[in-house]
Predict the structure.
Amino acid sequence: MNKKCLITTAILLSIIIAGFYKFIIQGSVSESTDGRTTILLSDSERNLVLTEMRAFLSSVQQINQGIAEDDMELVVEHARKSGKAAQTGMPGTLVGKLPLPFKKLGGDTHAKFDQLAMDAEDLGDRDQALEQLSALMQNCVSCHATYRIDI
C-alpha cells in the first residue's frame, strides 16, 4: 500500500470510529444547568420517550394495586406491558441519539418488568413482587436524577 492510500484509509477509519462513538455510545447530549445530562431529541422523539415513561408509571401503579389486592394476574399483565416487548418499533435515529448508559438503564428496566411478570406468575409471592418493584423503581429514580430530555 502506498502512503497516500494508508492516509486515506486512516482518515476514513477515524471518521467511522467517531461516527460509531457518537451514534452508539455518546448520543446527542449536552450538559444542563441542573447538573443532569440533557438528551437532545426532536419533538416527536421526545414525545415517544415520554410516552414510554408514562406507560412505565401506569404499569407501576397497576402492579402496586395488584400487590395490594393480592391480584397477581394484574401484576403479571401490567409488568408484561412494560417488558422488553415494549421496546419494539423504536426508530434507529432515536436510539442513536440516546447515550449508552441511558440505553443500558432502559434495557435493564424493561428486563426487570419481564422478570417481575415471570416471578409473579410462577411464584405468586406478593412480598417478592414488592421487592422487585422497589428495585425496578430505583432505575426510574436514577434515570430521572441523571437525565432530562429537551428539544
